[in-house]
Amino acid sequence: MRFSTWEFYIRETLLSLRRNSLMSLASISTVALSFLILGLFVLLVVNLDYMADTLEAQVEIAAYLDPELEEGEIARIAEQIESLPGVRESDFVSRDEALDRLRKQFGERQDLLDSVEEMNPLRHSFEIRAEEAEQVKVIAREIGGIEGVAEVKYRQEVVERLFSLTRSIRMGGLVLVLLLLMATVF
């Protein structure tokens, strides 16, 4: 295209904008506002998705051990847990460490635990995190089958509700962004 053709188009555009300034301003404002709303919703969906990922990463499995276990048996259980597929990491929490954590949670009311200190009723445990939050149920079932593990907890109803919520957020956000994108473009 030659320069004179471009010059003609630019001149006609400016002339048309001057003649119909109110309508031009209205249409430019509408398109700008549509893109602004679309951008805000995309930002909202991305932040909600990040928040959902963060919550899923915090899902933990607690495996409580039989109180009569020897240190060698605890090491064997640790190896078995670490070798399970889908386990990202596991941390051993001794009875004493669990009692210290409980003291910190009680804050100023730590004195309530003084009578418990001689015969600590808490058990050794493992805190396990999965590579994918969807694997928690399967991993918990496998850990429950390990000899020496007395109880496994992972807040099943909370985890299932969290997965349902994150799926809804992702699908709703995707649909909303697509609808806004279509409204903005067309």
Question: Can you describe what's shown?
Answer:
This protein has 186 residues and is an alpha+beta fold. The chain has 2 domains: 3-54 and 164-185, no CATH class; 61-154, Alpha-Beta Plaits (2-Layer Sandwich). It is 63% helix and 13% strand. The chain contains 6 helices and 4 strands, in the order ααβαβαβαβα. It has helices at residues 3-19, 21-57, 71-83, 95-106, 136-144, 156-185; strands at residues 60-65, 87-93, 125-130, 149-153. The protein starts with a helix and ends with a helix. 10% of the residues are buried.
The helix count comes to: 6
State the oligomer: single chain
Spans of at least 5 consecutive residues whose pLDDT stays below 50 are none
Helix content: 55-70%
Per CATH, the class of the largest domain reads Alpha Beta
- Can you tell me the CATH architecture of the largest domain? 2-Layer Sandwich
Mean pLDDT: 83
Largest sheet: 4 strands, antiparallel
Widest sheet, order of strands: 2-3-1-4
Record field, number of beta strands: 4
Span between termini: 28 Å
Q: Topology, pairings included?
A:
Elements: H1 3-19, H2 21-57, E1 60-65, H3 71-83, E2 87-93, H4 95-106, E3 125-130, H5 136-144, E4 149-153, H6 156-185
Antiparallel strand pairs: 1-3, 1-4, 2-3
Give a summary of the structure in a few sentences:
The protein has 186 residues and is of the alpha+beta class. The protein has helices at residues 3-19, 21-57, 71-83, 95-106, 136-144, 156-185; strands at residues 60-65, 87-93, 125-130, 149-153.
